[in-house]
Structure formats: C-alpha cells, structure tokens
Amino acid sequence: MPARAGADAHGKFAVPSIKRRLICMVYESLLLAGVAFLSGLLFLVATGPNPGGWTRHAFQIYLFLVIGLYFVVSWRHRGQTLAMKTWKLRLVGANGARITLRQAMMRYVCAWPCLLLGGIGILYAPFDRQRQFLHDRLAGTRVVNSEG
Asked: Distance between CA 63 and CA 47 in Å, rounded?
C-alpha cells in the first residue's frame, strides 16, 4: 500500500491522501463562508453597517476568534469538523490520542501563515515522512482516516 494512503510506521492509523485532505479543505472553506457570514452579520447589526477605524480591526479580530472557536471546539470534541466528518478524516495527536486544547489552538494559529504564505504548509506535505501538513507537524497533530 502506498505510504500516503497506508498505515503509518506504528501500523495503527491510515494516512489519507493529500488530494483528499485538499478536497476537504475546499469543502471546509464553503462551510466557513456561512459561519463568517452569520457571525459577521451579528457583529454588523450590533456595531453598525460601516465598520471603520477601531471597529474594523475589532471586526477582523472577532472573525478570527469566531473561526478559531469553530475549529478548536470541533477538533477537541470529536477530532473532526463537519467537513472532516463528511470526508471521514479525524485529527489526532502525534501519538494517536485525542488532541489537547493547546494543540488545537496551536494548529489553528499555525495554519494561518502556513496557508497564507503561498501555501507553504501544504507544499511541505509531499516531503513529510507521514505526508502531514506543516501546521500539523508544528502543533504535534496529524490527520488520519476515521473509522466511520
């Protein structure tokens, strides 16, 4: 079985293909558009329709925190967001255990520069021995196939 779709060195977890994780990320972005729209609407109703000055910065921080809350709570609760559940992927710690709150927050924070700097975190995956993205390596997490 190829390394990218087979069991890891410990033989416990099957590693999903990079292509499957990228497709999951596209689906995740569609779901996040809805989360951002609804939370943004709530913010704008509370503050006014034209954020400017400090309100604009507060809005950006608010969206960063709301999206972070979505990911961290999802990863900590079952190891999956809705998109990951749909694509039968799960986030675990490097040892295969449920991730800690610190790991979830670290993964979220590290994912931003890894994705925004030309996708360097994704381009790293083909060179990683377990085909993990850079933000997973930095946070001590990994994406595996879920049992169901």
From this structure: 14
Which of 92, 42, 33, 81 lies closest to 62 in space, CA to CA? Answer: 42
The pTM of this model reads 0.85
Contact 144, 9 (CB under 8 A): no
Decide if 135 contacts 144 (C-beta within 8 A): no
Could you tell me the pLDDT band of residue 91, with boundaries at 50, 70 and 90? Answer: very high
Look up tokens 């995740």; give the residue: 28
Max Cα separation, the chain? 56
- Three-state SS annotation for the chain: CCCCCCECCCCCCECCCHHHHHHHHHHHHHHHHHHHHHHHHHHHHHHCCCCCCHHHHHHHHHHHHHHHHHHHHHHHHCCCCHHHHHCCEEEEECCCCCCCHHHHHHHHHHHHHHHHCCCHHHHCHHHCCCCCCHHHHHHCEEEEECCC
Contact (Cβ atoms closer than 8 angstroms) between residue 106 and residue 72? no
